[in-house]
Amino acid sequence: MENIPNCPKCNCEYVYSDGTLFVCPECSHEFQDGDVQEKVYKDVNGTVLVDGDTVVVTQDLKVKGASGPIKKGTKVKNIRLIEPEDGVHDISCKIPGFGAMLLKTSVVKKG
């Protein structure tokens, strides 16, 4: 069986070959085999982040609808790195006292 890569855009595993291109049925992304590259996520200090890491917020972050900001030094456990839909927020996590949030790698450091 042919070794078909997951979609580089949405990580779908149901990609199929359409002649010279691979096509993702979930997001309709078309790509060639050489286009698949692992994105490297780095924190504010340039340290590489991976899924499941614990990070520390490096600055106070205002949150719409919340009574107060996420304070500098807040520890966030078990992060999940995502392909940003809005082009900015690339960490999905749960912050104690706030719930599910999206963060930028530029405001956290590995901790």
What would your notes on this structure say?
This protein has 111 residues and is mostly beta strands. It has 2 domains: 1-37, N-terminal domain of TfIIb; 41-110, SH3 Domains (SH3 type barrels, Roll), CATH 2.30.30. Helices cover 0% and strands 29% of the residues. It has no helices and 11 strands. The protein has strands at 16-18, 21-23, 30-31, 41-42, 48-49, 55-57, 75-76, 80-81, 91-95, 99-103, 108-110. It has a 3-stranded antiparallel β-sheet, with no helix packed on it. The protein has a 3-stranded antiparallel β-sheet with strand order 7-6-11, with no helix packed on it. It has a 3-stranded antiparallel β-sheet with strand order 8-9-10, with no helix packed on it. The model has no long low-confidence stretch (mean pLDDT 87). Belongs to the YjdM family. It comes from Pseudodesulfovibrio indicus. InterPro entries: YjdM, YjdM_C, YjdM_N. This is Alkylphosphonate utilization protein.
What topology, given as strand order, has the largest sheet?
1-2-3
CATH class of the largest domain: Mainly Beta
Task: Kindly identify the CATH topology of the largest domain.
Answer: SH3 type barrels
- Number of discrete helical segments: 0
Order of helices and strands: EEEEEEEEEEE
**Helicity range of the residues?**
under 10%
CATH-level-2 architecture of the largest domain: Roll
Assign the CATH superfamily of the largest domain: SH3 Domains
Q: Would you kindly provide a brief summary of this structure?
A:
By secondary structure, the chain is mostly beta strands.
Could you outline the blueprint of secondary structure elements for this entry?
Layout: E1 16-18, E2 21-23, E3 30-31, E4 41-42, E5 48-49, E6 55-57, E7 75-76, E8 80-81, E9 91-95, E10 99-103, E11 108-110
